[in-house]
Write a structure and sequence with these properties.
The chain is an alpha/beta fold and about 375 residues long. It has 11 helices and 14 strands. The radius of gyration is 21 Å and the shape is elongated.
Length: about 375
Amino acid sequence: MTENPSLFYQYTLGEIRAWGKERDLPAYRIGQLWSWVYQRGAASFDDMSNLPKDLRAELNARFSLELPTLVVRQRDPNDGTSKILLELNDGERVESVIMPRFSERAQTDPRTGAVRDRDKRTVKDYTACLSTQAGCQYACRFCASGQDGLQRNLSAGEIVSQVMRFRREGEDVSHIVFMGSGEPLHNYEEVRRAVEILTCEEGLNFSSRKITLSTVGVVPEIYRMAKDDWKIKLAISLHAPADEKREQLIPIARSYSLSQLKDALLYYQRLQPRRVTFEYLMIADFNDSPKDAEKLIALADGLICHVNLIPYNAVPRAPFQPTPARKIDEFRNRLRKRNLDATVRYSRGRNIDAACGQLRRRMNQPAVASIEHE
């Protein structure tokens, strides 16, 4: 470990225990430290009143509990979703989103995004959508994250600190989705380390079943993920059931065909018998025809999977429009009639810069702030 103060959230419990052992610290002291940081959410080592003063001084010299600076927060009054823009130590900015989870299953009005009967529902806990990179190299046409390219990968500590930012503000995060800015499998090692820290039983203790990683389909890393036995959920950003259409949306699809992607998912499920989710943006007159539905059914054959149909959330500079709600229902019903599990997931945060990368891009480029969003 470096002698300069470094982000405490970067380290696993095993590494902190090894650090303590080098200093002949009793094991219970490391347990106290870990509990202060992750269970009690301490903002300073000086607040850790049951640790010796000299240990607190050494911790201050060696580690930092600093969280990313909150630049701006947007909140959608219709569904309670919040998006925050965070500034990291080097000035790079990333987005995180937090969405309320209601005690009863909530339906969203497809026209306004409002949660129906919201006044009758209580918020149970929250899902946090985390970024894994500043920007993105894949430049999917439906997404704002890649419009300015990839700046850098985030460290595991910077990923974990997004959760800590929400928790420090009193929001009870119970579910995590790696679906913010960036491609998680392009930052494989740091995301895996972040998962280890997040699921540590002595710390935040997230259930691996409540963590989802969404990827555009980096085929070699899906094979690697299967072998490494990540006990989290896998979602595929699919969005088109045929190569020629998918390549128009997702540049990496030119490198990995749908047949290669399916082979990787079949291998994944042989080693990890977990259901895979297909994320499918419904884009008007592009991927929403009965023929598209039949191709999607064929692609899903042989896989344990679920399809999330998502009305497209318009992004500046992207030439697409969302499929009307009636047509989305028809598409879903066609899938269900062929025994393909499918639901409609109306996007949260439709009245803010909800799509990945929109808020970061607008704040970094004031000239586009006047663009109206649907």
